[in-house]
Write a structure and sequence with these properties.
Length: 115
């Protein structure tokens, strides 16, 4: 079981590494946030799961399961809040951005939803 836990921990660490590379390489704050959030959510969950499987004798699987659930719910919600705040303060989009869904929502709210 320790070997399975080590492999899952390694896969989680690779996802965390890829998330940090994505944060460095993406063109704007919204893409960076998306790359970082998806990779770190999955990476953290796998890392914690691997640690709990590798150390079953400590009896902390329940606590780590609660941590995994907490990360699963809070990481995307906080990222969404930060992205909406960045859009609200008019952070620049990448030149390759095709569509801005929040901009159409703001236009509809500004004219009273008459579109």
């Amino acid at each position: 079981m320790e070997l399975i836990g080590a492999v899952i921990t390694l896969v989680g660490a690779i996802f965390l590494l890829l998330g940090s590379v994505g944060v460095l390489r993406m063109p704007d704050v919204f893409n960076r946030m998306q790359a970082g959030t998806k990779a770190t959510t999955l990476g953290t969950m796998l890392f914690l799961l691997g640690i709990s499987l590798g150390h079953l004798e400590c009896g902390c699987f329940g606590k780590i399961f609660i941590l995994i659930i907490f990360v699963l719910f809070t990481n995307p919600v906080s990222s969404n809040s930060l992205a909406r705040a960045a859009h609200f303060v008019k952070m620049n989009l990448a030149e390759s951005t095709v569509k801005d869904d929040l901009e159409t929502d703001n236009v509809e709210e500004a004219d009273g939803g008459k579109r």
